[in-house]
Amino acid sequence: MAVRISGIDIPISKRGVIALTYLYGIGKNLSKMILCSVGINENKKVENWSDEEISKIRKYISNNVKIEGELKSEIQFNIKRLMDIGSYIGTRHRKGLPLRGQKTKNNCRTRKGRKKTVANKKKVTK
């Protein structure tokens, strides 16, 4: 029996706090808050949840938390908005460079991609 919340199967052999973090947009603190507000012990494993508890969690998440596709589309919209207004962060997104003040002379290979070797100019002989 797999527990499915908003289209994602969460593992049943893990504790509730950890299992909810498998949903995009839910971290450890938010999962603790969700379980506390629903009234489920955070150390209780998912396989021991009753159908009523699962439905409470689904209802709470669908009403109060943005997750998965809705959250991803909102993030993409925010990035597009920054690019359209021409802010500094938007231009860094457009160029594929780091956004938050990191140095780019030596590092930031994750953001820039593989090295693109540029050949040196030939010295002119007289």
Jot down its keywords.
126 residues; mainly alpha; Helicase, Ruva Protein, domain 3; two-stranded antiparallel sheet; 6 helices; 48% helix; 5% strand; rRNA-binding; Ribosomal_uS13_bac-type; Ribosomal_uS13; ribosomal protein; RNA-binding
Helix segment count? Answer: 6
**CATH fold call of the largest domain:** Helicase, Ruva Protein, domain 3
Order of helices and strands: EEHHHHHH
CATH class assignment of the largest domain: Mainly Alpha
Write down the overall mean pLDDT: 90
What is this structure's SSE topology?
Elements: E1 3-5, E2 8-10, H1 16-20, H2 28-38, H3 51-64, H4 68-85, H5 88-95, H6 109-112
Antiparallel strand pairs: 1-2
GO molecular function, one term: structural constituent of ribosome
Organism: Blattabacterium sp.
Keywords: Ribonucleoprotein, Ribosomal protein, RNA-binding, rRNA-binding
Architecture overview:
With 126 residues, the chain is mainly alpha-helical. The chain has 2 domains: 3-65, Helicase, Ruva Protein, domain 3; 67-100. It is built from 6 helices and 2 strands. The chain has helices at residues 16-20, 28-38, 51-64, 68-85, 88-95, 109-112, and strands at residues 3-5, 8-10. Strands 1-2 form a two-stranded antiparallel ribbon. Strand 1 (3-5) and strand 2 form a beta hairpin. Helix 4 crosses helix 5 (88-95). The longest helix has 18 residues, at 68-85. It is elongated, with a radius of gyration of 23 Å. The mean pLDDT is 90. Residues 95-126 are annotated as: Disordered. GO terms for molecular function: rRNA binding; structural constituent of ribosome. It holds the Pfam family Ribosomal_S13. It comes from Blattabacterium sp. This is Small ribosomal subunit protein uS13.
